[in-house]
Design goal:
InterPro entries: MetI-like (IPR000515), MetI-like_sf (IPR035906), Sugar_ABC_transporter (IPR052730). Pfam families: BPD_transp_1. It is found in: Cell membrane. Its main location: membrane. It comes from Sulfitobacter mediterraneus. The chain has 14 helices and two strands; from the N terminus they run αββααααααααααααα. β1 and β2 form a beta hairpin. The protein has one domain: MetI-like fold. The two termini are 36 Å apart. It has a two-stranded antiparallel ribbon with strand order 1-2. The protein is mainly α.
Amino acid sequence: MKTENQKAWFFVLPVLLLVAFNALVPIMTVVNYSVQETFGNNVFFWQGLDWFEQILRSDRFQAALGRQFLFTFLILIIEVPLGIIIALSMPRNGFWVPVCLVTMALPMLIPWNVVGAMWNIFTLPDIGLLGYLMNHTLGIPYDMTQNPFAAWVTIITMDVWHWTSLVVLLSYAGLVSIPDAYYQAAKIDGASAWKVFRFIQLPKLKTVLTIAILLRFMDSFNIYTEPFVLTGGGPGNSTTLLSIDLVKIALGQFDLGPAAAMSLIYFAITLLVSWLFYTLMTKDDAQ
């Protein structure tokens, strides 16, 4: 009987230790703060689950959570179909393939804080190119610093510009992996472009779309830097997403207990919804 070589674990051990240090230790620290109260000097008082109850019943938390879900919902219904459409229109061979791929990848290479700063300058009502064009050239009132609707349109547009490329690249990779025999059979049967997409391309894209939706959900649901740099959560609290509100509680008010409880609830919601997405999208495959 062949014996297993257990020495391979020595190669995995450094990774496990790194994950434990970067993930488990911080999480346990947050758990510790979430059930205690402190007034400094490293003195703690047992609080139990009071912070969790306070956060879940808070109107502030529920409003921020609602804005976060709305933002993520709008991002998904815009970026996923748009990414598929762009991927379908890209060439499959020739000189323009690398040009299109590099062009699509460029927005994702820009750091998040730079994206927020760029769009902040770009959309300022008086000196920004877009703001000046909307207000003075087209005559359309636009001021993201005063109008909540304009602020929402701006952060949605910014995210679509920044991250639709991810869906495009994943969808394009799925499309080019489809064998030509499928298209030849569809052509012989006289299938329309819609039927080719519905019965050939879309089923073959299911795996990559599952990855794209999960990645975009997790990233958009935990987004912080871009909207914070762009609007700071304003005007008022109209664009104060859950992540921004969490930072305000933790660093602005220095309420470590409620912030820790809120971050764990935030983490649990992200895991739960991601699991639901994955379960629903892979249900047919499991059957």
